[in-house]
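Lab meeting, item 3. Inverse folding demo.
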């Protein structure tokens, strides 16, 4: 019986969709007609025709390469996550070991620089009761914070390149070449208590496309430590 008759059309060649549908419904078709496997020729990128078997092998090899790349990507993600978990652990240890507010702030600054590779760290606390340790104090309604209005109203971590006004407020006038990208972390719900800026010289170190889950957890740790018995002002 001819292929056309098996497909139910004896007057003309079958439509492509009918062929596809039939082959999907009968995956053993070429097992029952092995002679067709060697007779069918499939165009190749080089312009030469190859057998169906060769084409299948080529497709499988391509799929295998794609799977290998995906596996490598997954391994890289897992390795990066392991590194982030370890750094978060170091931050938690520093916060737990702190005996007073000054040590809490100093621990945050130290861990961000040493374990998170920060080139610049600025901790802003929204009160006006002088300066303490590495923290900068500013009223939340200070006009100087106008460039951060969207960040403060959103209350979520922000990554990427900062505006000139934001850079000037956080890192001063001599910021040239010091900060190419940064991560902003809110302290407390809705950035109620302050914010932390983590700066990097590299423009692509922090990108808006990166996830913020670990940054959110970090911000929660910091806020909890500052509101705890050792983090409160005495």
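The presenter then showed the designed sequence:
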């Amino acid at each position: 019986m001819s292929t056309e008759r098996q497909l139910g059309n004896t007057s003309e060649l079958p439509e492509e969709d009918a062929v596809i549908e039939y082959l999907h419904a009968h995956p053993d078709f070429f097992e029952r007609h092995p002679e067709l496997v060697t007779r069918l020729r499939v165009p190749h990128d080089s312009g030469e025709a190859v057998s169906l078997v060769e084409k299948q092998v080529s497709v499988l090899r391509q799929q295998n390469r794609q799977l290998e790349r995906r596996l490598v990507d997954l391994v890289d993600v897992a390795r990066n996550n392991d590194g982030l978990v370890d750094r978060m652990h170091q931050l938690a240890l520093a916060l737990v070991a702190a005996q007073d507010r000054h040590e809490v702030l100093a621990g945050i600054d130290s861990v961000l620089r040493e374990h998170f590779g920060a080139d610049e760290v600025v901790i802003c606390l929204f009160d006006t009761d002088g300066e303490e340790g590495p923290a900068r104090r500013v009223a939340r309604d200070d006009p100087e914070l106008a460039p951060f209005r969207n960040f403060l109203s959103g209350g979520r971590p922000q990554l990427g390149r900062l505006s000139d006004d934001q850079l000037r407020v956080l890192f001063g006038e001599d910021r040239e070449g010091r900060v190419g990208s940064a991560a902003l972390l809110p302290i407390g719900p809705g950035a109620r208590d302050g914010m932390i800026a983590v700066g990097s010289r590299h423009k692509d170190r922090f990108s808006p496309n990166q996830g913020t889950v670990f940054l959110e957890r970090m911000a929660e740790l910091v806020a909890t430590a500052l509101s705890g018995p050792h983090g409160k002002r005495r």
